[in-house]
Amino acid sequence: MEGSSGADPSAAPLPLAKWRSDFARAFQYYLDKSKPHSVGRWIGTLVVVLTYVLRVYLIQGFYIISYGLGIYLLNLMIGFLSPKVDPEIEVMDGASLPMKGSDEFKPFIRRLPEFKFWFSITKAFCIAFVMTFFSVFDVPVFWPILLFYWVVLCFLTMKRQIMHMIKYRYIPFSIGKKRYTAKKGSAGSRSDGMDGRTFTGLFT
User: Where would you find the membrane-spanning parts of this chain (predicted)?
Assistant: First the structure.
């Protein structure tokens, strides 16, 4: 009798697929819950970075991984500092960033949002840390040359980005929106000259 013995082959991977689905769902849940806590997220990332740096320092190797990691971080930084829409394209389309106080206000929107910027950095350092446990990635190189080349590349890239900011008059870091709150007792101006204005954080 055909098919009378043995289990269905398609049923074997189901527990693994269910575990992966449950893990991905739980991971996304906690990732979404961490989004408002920017300070705590960056402190955790700092711990990961220091752990990676300490490991590379102690084993005196895996410099090629660190170099690739540095190039990737530089690319992320450019995306974080760049506007979502290139001002050069806006000029070609007839639109432009506001140059005068009478122009329409256009908030700065990053090409790479802060949360994705943080998550990409953290994930990159975690992957690099795992790679340091495999000797195949420990390619012998003269690390001062890699460090010098990365510093030069970083200088040239940031110089070009700063010139782009100056040309199109935008600042990637904003103090935040102004909020006006009613003063207790009277509506007069405050003695400190702030007129009830408060400011939000940098990464908005």
Answer: 39-58, 64-82, 115-135, 141-158
Q: Is residue 188 part of a domain?
A: no
Which pTM does this prediction carry? 0.70
Look at the chain and report how many structural domains it folds into. 1
Identify whether 117 is part of a domain: yes
Reported as a single tens digit per residue, the pLDDT across 72-124 is: 999 999 999 988 877 777 654 444 455 555 455 566 788 899 999 999 999 99
d(C-alpha 77, C-alpha 115), whole Å = 13
- What phi-psi label fits residue 176: left (phi over 0), alpha (psi between -120 and 50 degrees) or beta? left
62 with 136: CB under 8 angstroms?
no
Measured CA to CA in angstroms, residue 37 lies from 31, 105, 112, 133, 204 at distances of 10, 28, 18, 31, 13
Interhelix angle 38-59/114-131, rounded to 10 degrees, is 20
Residue 37 resides in a domain: yes
- Give the domain range for residue 99: 22-173
Q: What's the burial of 12, exposed, middle or buried (CB within 10 Å: 0-12/13-18/19+)?
A: exposed
- Tell me, yes or no, whether 36 lies in a domain: yes
